[in-house]
Design goal:
By secondary structure, this protein is α/β, with parallel strands linked by helices. It has eleven helices and eleven strands. It folds into two domains: about 180 residues, Rossmann fold, CATH 3.40.50; about 110 residues, Phosphofructokinase domain (Rossmann fold, 3-Layer(aba) Sandwich), CATH 3.40.50.
Length: about 325
């Protein structure tokens, strides 16, 4: 009987997960493995929701957002009882290794499986880009492109009414979506958790620009730095600015993955199978300096996230000269 690789997606869905699933299935088939799809993440693993995924099952999914394996968060897997149930399912289905696509919380689960003796490989799938060991996570590029597109539409409306648009984006405690999209989309101001901000200074700048004839400004705020509605309320109350808050929400997670996310997911899936083929586990795959890398999962999760201050400094230079 062929060796079996299990694969699950966990945590928040992200564009490119399907491309990663497809890559694992195709690479495993080429290596002589079969792939067992685990539905709804660790919850599905505990419940035994496991079924074979064949190459024909992944045809055409590279362009689709979300995840065909569904996803869920699972508190039970954090308990020893839940972990033992999962281990029993893995043994019952003769699964020799597991690929986990997800973010930090999902990787904590992957680490548990590895420490239970199951060779496990993590692929970073989260729009937040908040895993320190890799330059980019799957889904981040698509989310940024999506935000840039929405910024353009919102600016059209803000221009028509001569308003300030305060756009709140996702990212948890990492401001990368706001930073990258803010630069690419030409935001006048970016508020991120990594940098202290002075709301009164921002208001003064906006007022000054309005005096010079620029009646519209876009302020991009990362959810980890505050609420867009609170910022807009302050602008209206204290600076008498006509400010509108827009929360982009889940539209950042959905949609067709970008070419960059598809390529990264494909290469990372290939590397994951190559590692399991060699019997290697307890690793996470990523990209660094535009090259696919893998690293010990414990070391990867212990790294501190490094803020791209160089990018923020570039933005400051541009924003100071905006009129």
């Amino acid at each position: 009987m062929k060796k079996r690789i299990g694969i699950l997606t966990s945590g928040g869905d992200t564009p490119g997960m399907n491309a990663g699933i497809r890559s694992v299935v195709m690479a495993a088939d080429a290596a002589g493995f079969s792939v067992m799809g685990i539905t709804k993440g660790y919850a599905g693993l505990i419940e035994g929701r496991v079924d074979r995924i064949k190459t024909e099952d992944v045809a055409g999914i590279v362009e689709k957002g979300g995840t065909i394996l569904k996803t869920a968060r699972c508190e039970e897997f954090k308990t020893q009882e839940g972990q033992q149930k999962a281990l029993q399912v893995i043994k019952a289905f003769d699964i020799s290794g597991v690929v986990v696509i997800g973010g930090d919380g999902s990787f904590q689960g992957a680490k548990v499986l590895s420490h239970l003796g199951v060779p496990t490989i993590g692929i970073p799938g989260t729009i937040d880009n908040d895993l320190a060991y890799t330059d980019f996570t799957i889904g981040f590029d698509t989310a940024v492109n999506g935000v840039v597109g929405e910024m353009s539409r919102i600016r059209d409306t803000m221009n028509s009414h001569e308003r300030v648009g305060v756009i709140e984006v996702m990212g948890n405690k990492c401001g990368d979506i706001a930073l990258y999209a803010g630069i690419a989309g030409g935001a006048e101001h970016i508020i991120i958790p990594e940098v202290e901000f002075d709301i009164d200074y921002i208001c003064d700048k906006i007022i000054g620009n309005r005096i010079k004839g620029n009646m519209t400004s876009i302020v991009l705020i990362a959810e980890g730095a505050g609420k867009g509605e609170a910022v807009a309320n302050y602008m209206r109350a204290k600076a008498k600015l006509d400010a509108k808050a827009i929360v982009l929400g889940y539209i950042q997670r959905g949609g067709t993955p970008s070419a960059a996310d598809r390529l990264r997911a494909t290469s990372m899936g290939m590397r994951a199978v190559q590692l399991l083929e060699k019997g290697i586990g307890n690793r996470v795959v990523g990209i660094r300096d535009n090259k696919i890398i893998d690293e010990d999962i414990d070391e990867a999760l212990s790294k501190e996230l490094i803020f791209r201050k160089d990018l923020y400094d570039e933005f400051k230079i541009m924003s100071e000269n905006m009129q």
